[in-house]
Structures are given as structure tokens and as C-alpha cells.
Design a protein that fits this description.
By secondary structure, the chain is mainly α. Helices cover 95% and strands 0% of the residues. The radius of gyration is 28 Å and the shape is rod-shaped.
Amino acid sequence: MTLEEAQEKARASVLEVHKSLDMLEQRAVEMVQQCEDIVERLNAMEQKLAQIEKMHADVQRKLK
């Protein structure tokens, strides 16, 4: 293999690595967005649960 061939092969490898890194970065961004969406839904569920617990406590007081 000549020096030029080796350099071309190295360039191609570097390009493939960059493509892979770009894909990984894009996937990481998507996963972060999914996590943020999950946290948002969990926060909404937590608020709803707090409302239900308050209503339950109110009913318990009225029954006494």
C-alpha cells in the first residue's frame, strides 16, 4: 500500500467516525428530549396525585 492509499484509507476512516459521532449526537439529543417529556409527565402526575390526596383528606375530615 502506498502512502497515498494509506492516507486515503485514513481519511475515509475519519469520515466514518465523524458520521458515527454525528449519529450518536443526534440520538443523544432525541433521548434527552424523551427524558424531558417523561419528567414533564411525571411532574403532572405528581401534581394530580397531590390533588387526589388533598381531596381524600377533605373527605376523611368530613366523614369524622
